[in-house]
Amino acid sequence: MSDCLIIGGGVIGMMTALQLADAGQRVTLVERGRCGHEASWAGGGIVSPLYPWRYPVPISQLSRWSEGAYPTLALRLHEETGIDPEYRQKGLIYLNVDDEARALGWARSMGKPLERIDAQAVAAREPHAAASQNALWMPTLGSIRNPRLGQALRARLGAMPGVTLAENTAVSGFIRTGNAVTGVATSAGNYTAGRVVVCGGAWAAALLATLGEALAVRPVKGQMIAYQTPPGLVERVILKDGRYVIPRADGLLLVGSTLEEAGFDKATDAQARASLEASAESIVPALADYPVVHHWAGLRPGSPDGTPFIGALPGWQNLYVNAGHYRNGLVLAPASTHLLVDELLGRTPLIDPLPYRLEGRMVEAG
Q1: Residue 142 main-chain phi, psi, to 5 deg
Q2: Which residues form the FAD dependent oxidoreductase domain (predicted)?
Q3: Assigned domain for 345 exists
Q4: pLDDT tens digits, one per residue of 174-193
Q5: 366 inside domain
């Protein structure tokens, strides 16, 4: 019997397991596929909400803490596993921002560096970016190569003696006595634990529905493409009209993303690809000369306003949830998992946990 059983092997589940194991807890992580292969793999890896000033304050609070945690986490994982998550802190250029005053006001209130720059300054930073007379520059923004982050987290957990990874293991229901949850039934048999944490991403609501609970989390499909370019063609994240390009050190350039209400369908289509290519070339015109080498889709755990559900499930003993991060799972993962682990271990919380609790928020309209 473990101290804690975690359902879901994305970055939320794996970071929760890592922090609990660091604290001496015995942890079992159950994943229906392979750890890190759903939304955590499919995202872009920008370590900030796309337009952070347009989000509720609770998201900014989690994001600010997580941004500061990623450099140390990436360094730790690289040292412990030999897998480099490729954390890059080269800043972000916003093109065509139509609510500039709001953005600058948010930056002042949060103590974030954000400044207006002209076309010459854009060209100096990114010579291949589209010309723009209306740009903002955030020098501290970073990005992480999320598939490699997932690989590094999985490798580290696999080497920790107090952690059991149960991959390719589907959860069919909860084991309970009255309103106390004591484990889960799975395709590989039953697992029991002192506490159970649901980190199932877009599938979290379906898991909780087996208890008759309705959680306001739904799948939202996002399609992305990637170009192979010479290293250094683009050095910084560039965002324009809701679409972005994200460079990797080896010249791979990610472009995203669509927002589609399509249930659990992860199929890609030619129309989305054409739209993403058009966005990419409007941001970096030179991309018209390079090939698209990948096209994929993932499922985000959509929630009513993007604020995740973090904490105990009302009416049940020993059952907790960390889900509903929508477009910001990677962005918020270090802080949201730390906040939940604070609750599990009885520590002083990282930040005020009240905005993330499930009480009164379970079935808000999306």
Answers
A1: -120, 170
A2: 3-342
A3: yes
A4: 999 999 999 999 999 999 99
A5: no
